[in-house]
Design brief:
Elements (H helix, E strand, L loop, with lengths): L3 H7 E4 L4 H10 L7 E4 L2 E5 L1 E2 L4 H11 L6 E4 L2 E4 L4 H20 L5 E2 L5 E3 L4 E3 L3 E4 L3 H4 L15 E5 L5 H10 L4 E5 L4 E7 L2 E4 L11 H8 L7 H23 L1
Parallel strand pairs: 11-12
Antiparallel strand pairs: 1-3, 2-3, 4-6, 5-6, 5-9, 7-10, 8-9, 10-11, 12-13, 13-14
Helix pairs in contact: 2-3, 4-8
């Protein structure tokens, strides 16, 4: 019998999967020896499938519809991940900080959330935790869909990984040419900048150069002792002052 630790390495638990979605997903992936169980909306499924055809991956995205499946696809390897509350809390708070700051500072932005980003040209795709157009926002303004290999990649992606998947996903982010990733490992935040096909830590954000990873982490560390509304207001006030100081120093 497989113990729980080993089982967690092989399978993911996906809650709230509608019956029709379950049937469509298992039909689409049936040829890949898809061992699974399904019980009243909870789907337990193999976390990694190899040799997946691009056409089957595209069909999977279609049949998933509005169901959000954390995953990445890299030249035939499909890896799926279970949603975790600890992950979602950090992700959502960082996203709210970005969105509150851009609103307060009137910075044009298009938030595309967990829109799956794909490239048939490179046979890769993934669902980011959050993603934003900032510098490239005018190029996609008004567009309600992501057009693979036509639209520019998002300027910034957020990846929160309290397990071990992020390093593998970074290779896919790089293949998709996303210039900046904020990576949080559950304890600390890093800003990563794409250079020559690889991500390297950077002291300042590319999209928001007045921010450093420690600045965001400082406010994240306060999340247990303050309600989020007050925390966000404190962050926005701080960020506005920090931007003015950065711009004055840069002159």
């Amino acid at each position: 019998m497989i113990d729980q630790v080993a089982a967690d390495d092989f399978y993911v638990l996906l809650p709230g999967v509608p019956w029709d979605t379950y049937v469509a997903v298992t039909d689409t992936l049936a040829r890949y020896h898809l061992r699974h169980t399904y019980d009243r909306g909870l789907l337990e499924i193999r976390r990694e499938l190899v040799g997946v055809l691009w056409e089957d991956y595209e069909e999977l995205l279609r049949v998933l519809g509005n169901y959000s499946l954390p995953h990445y696809f890299d030249r035939g390897t499909l890896v799926m991940m279970s949603p975790l509350k600890s992950h979602d809390w950090i992700k959502s708070l960082i996203a709210r900080m970005i969105e509150a700051m851009t609103l307060s500072m009137r910075i044009p932005v298009q938030t595309i959330g967990t829109t799956t980003i794909t490239s048939r040209r490179s046979l890769s795709g993934l669902q980011p935790d959050e993603a934003y157009y900032i510098r490239s926002e005018p190029k996609v303004r008004g567009s309600s869909v992501f057009r693979p290999d036509i639209d520019p990649p998002p300027d910034l992606a957020l990846e929160v990984d309290v397990t071990r998947e992020s390093r593998q996903k970074l290779n896919v982010y790089a293949t998709l040419l996303i210039p900046e990733v904020w990576l949080h490992d559950g304890s600390q935040l890093q800003f990563l900048r794409l250079a020559r096909g690889k991500y390297r830590s950077t002291k300042r954000s590319v999209a928001f150069p007045w921010l450093q990873p420690a600045d965001i982490q400082l406010f994240l560390d306060r999340r247990g002792g303050k309600n989020e509304t007050d925390l966000l207001l404190d962050f926005v006030r701080w960020a506005r002052k920090r931007r003015k100081l950065y711009e004055a120093e840069s002159k």
